[in-house]
C-alpha cells in the first residue's frame, strides 16, 4: 500500500498543470463565488411612474431607495412604455403612484400603490416584494405625525397592489427549465469538443491527421458540425419535456429561439475547441470545462439572481455566453420578447463566437512543434 | 521534376536546449529504397518529421519532392505518405472506415471502389468490418501501409514500421515495400533491424543527431575496415569481458551463442585473441552489418545505454 501511495504522490507532483489546477481553481472559485453569490438580491432595477407630485410620494420613493432593494433607473410614462421595460428585461419592477395619491391618503380613502414585477425569476424578486409593504408602512408612519396623526391609528393607510407579470403564480420551474437548456448545452458542448482534440493527441492519431492534407478550419468545422446536431436534439428534448412535464409556457417565436440556440451551440463548441488546443490530456480538458462551467451556472443568473451580484461579478457574468442565452430563451418563452429587444444579447454571443473561434484556429498547430 | 526526392542541407532541430538533429545533409534520389539506421534517440524520427513538414527545422533548409519543407508543407503532404512509429489510425473505426476516411481526406476519386481494391490487394477484404483496434500488430501495420499508399504518393516515409511485429509479418511487410518500390515509389524507412537494413539500396547511419556514415551495405562494411573473428567455445562467456578491455578489440558481441570480436588491425587483433584466449578456436568470418554498427556507434562516442 505504501508503495502505491508513494507512486501516486510522485505522479501527482509530476503532472504540474493538473496539480496547480486542483489547488488554485477551488481557491479562486471560493473567493469569486463567496463574494458574488447573494440570495437576497438588492438594487433591483426599477422604473417609477409618479403621477402624484407630493412630499408623501417623495418620502415613499426615498424610503424604497434607502431600503436598497430598489434602484430607480428609469422613469416610465404610460402603460405601453412600462410594459416594454419589463419585457425587454431592462427593469425588474415598475412602481406606480397614481395621481391624487396623497390627497386620497389624507382623506383616509386607502389609495392604491402599484408594484408591477417581472416574475419570470420569482426568487430574484421575492424578497423585494415581501419587504415592499413594510417599507411603505414604515415610511408613512414617519409622515403620520402632527396634523396627520389621525391616520396613524388606521390599520393600513394604503392598498398595496403587487402585480406579477409573466409568471403570476411564481412557478420556479418556469424560470429554471428554459435555463436548463442553456446549462445542459454549455456542459455537453464544451466538454465534448474539448475532449475531441485531446483524444486525438493522446491516442497518437493527431500525428497522422497532421501528416494529411487538411487545414485547421477544416478540422474545426469537421469536428464540431456533428455536435451542432447533438445540441439541437438536446434542445428539442428539453423543450418537449418543459411543455409536457412542467407546463412551461412558450409564448414567443420559435424562430428567434432557434437562431439563439444555434448561435449559442456554436459559441460553446468553439470554446471547447479552444480548450482542446490548450489542454495536453483529456483530464486537463475536463478540468478546463469544469473551470468554465462553474462560473457559467453561478454567475449567469441561472442559479442566483443576476442583479443580486456585485457589479464586478455582473461584469464577469456579461462575458459568459450563458448569461445572454438565458435572457434570450427566458425572454422568448415567457415574455414574447422580440428580436430587436434581444439584439444586444445575440450580438454579445456572436462577438464571443468570433473571438473564441479565431483564438481556436490560431492556437491549432499544424506541426508537432 | 527534380531528380532528388529529398534534398536537405544543414538541417538542425533543437527541442529547448537539446540538439536532436545536428546539421544533417541528405540527398536521396527518386525511385530508391533508403534505410535510416541508428540507435534510439539518434534523430531518425525527428529528421523524417522535418522532411514531411510535421516539424519546423530550427536551422537549415531543404526540399522534399522539390517543395520547400518550410513553406510548402501542404504540397508535401499531398505527395508523400507518412507512416508513424506508433499505430496512429483510429482504433474505434473499422478497417474500411479508416481507409474511406483517408480516401476522402485526399479527395480520391471513386473512394469506395478504391478502398475495395486496396482491401483486396492487401488481403484485408474479409476483415474489412473489423475494428482497427482489435487487429494484431502485423495486421495493423498492413492497414497503416494501405492507408498511407492509397493516394499513390511519390515518396513513402516509414518510421520503424515493423517494430514489435513478428518475423513472418515483417517479411510480408517488406515484400510489400519492394513491390511498391518496383512500381517506382521512393521509400525512406527507418529501422532497428539489420536484416531490414540489408534490404535497402542505401543506408544512412545516424547517431546523436549526426550522419555518421552512408552508402550501400558493402560500402559501409568495407569502409569500416573491420576484421572479425568468431568463436563458439563453451567458456567464451567468461572471456568476453576481458576481450572487450583490449585496445585492439573494437567490439566483442554475441551472435547467438557465438562471440564476434572485431577490430581494425587484423594482425594485432589475432595476436590479442590468441594471447587472451589461447586455447580457443577462432575463425575469421565476414564482418556483418551488425558488427559494423556496434563499432560505429562506439566510435561515435555513444555510451552503451543508447544501444
Automatic annotation (TrEMBL), chain A:
<feature type="transmembrane region" description="Helical">
    <location>
        <begin position="288"/>
        <end position="306"/>
    </location>
</feature>
<feature type="domain" description="ABC transmembrane type-2">
    <location>
        <begin position="138"/>
        <end position="367"/>
    </location>
</feature>
<dbReference type="InterPro" id="IPR047817">
    <property type="entry name" value="ABC2_TM_bact-type"/>
</dbReference>
<keyword id="KW-0812">Transmembrane</keyword>
<keyword id="KW-1133">Transmembrane helix</keyword>
<protein>
    <submittedName>
        <fullName>ABC transporter permease</fullName>
    </submittedName>
</protein>
<feature type="transmembrane region" description="Helical">
    <location>
        <begin position="342"/>
        <end position="361"/>
    </location>
</feature>
<keyword id="KW-0813">Transport</keyword>
<feature type="transmembrane region" description="Helical">
    <location>
        <begin position="176"/>
        <end position="197"/>
    </location>
</feature>
<comment type="similarity">
    <text>Belongs to the ABC-2 integral membrane protein family.</text>
</comment>
<keyword id="KW-0472">Membrane</keyword>
<dbReference type="Pfam" id="PF12698">
    <property type="entry name" value="ABC2_membrane_3"/>
</dbReference>
<feature type="transmembrane region" description="Helical">
    <location>
        <begin position="227"/>
        <end position="248"/>
    </location>
</feature>
<dbReference type="InterPro" id="IPR051449">
    <property type="entry name" value="ABC-2_transporter_component"/>
</dbReference>
<dbReference type="InterPro" id="IPR013525">
    <property type="entry name" value="ABC2_TM"/>
</dbReference>
<keyword id="KW-1003">Cell membrane</keyword>
<feature type="transmembrane region" description="Helical">
    <location>
        <begin position="17"/>
        <end position="37"/>
    </location>
</feature>
<feature type="transmembrane region" description="Helical">
    <location>
        <begin position="254"/>
        <end position="276"/>
    </location>
</feature>
Automatic annotation (TrEMBL), chain B:
<dbReference type="Pfam" id="PF00005">
    <property type="entry name" value="ABC_tran"/>
</dbReference>
<dbReference type="InterPro" id="IPR003593">
    <property type="entry name" value="AAA+_ATPase"/>
</dbReference>
<keyword id="KW-0067">ATP-binding</keyword>
<feature type="domain" description="ABC transporter">
    <location>
        <begin position="6"/>
        <end position="233"/>
    </location>
</feature>
<keyword id="KW-0547">Nucleotide-binding</keyword>
<dbReference type="InterPro" id="IPR027417">
    <property type="entry name" value="P-loop_NTPase"/>
</dbReference>
<dbReference type="InterPro" id="IPR003439">
    <property type="entry name" value="ABC_transporter-like_ATP-bd"/>
</dbReference>
<dbReference type="GO" id="GO:0005524">
    <property type="term" value="F:ATP binding"/>
</dbReference>
<protein>
    <submittedName>
        <fullName>ABC transporter ATP-binding protein</fullName>
    </submittedName>
</protein>
<dbReference type="InterPro" id="IPR017871">
    <property type="entry name" value="ABC_transporter-like_CS"/>
</dbReference>
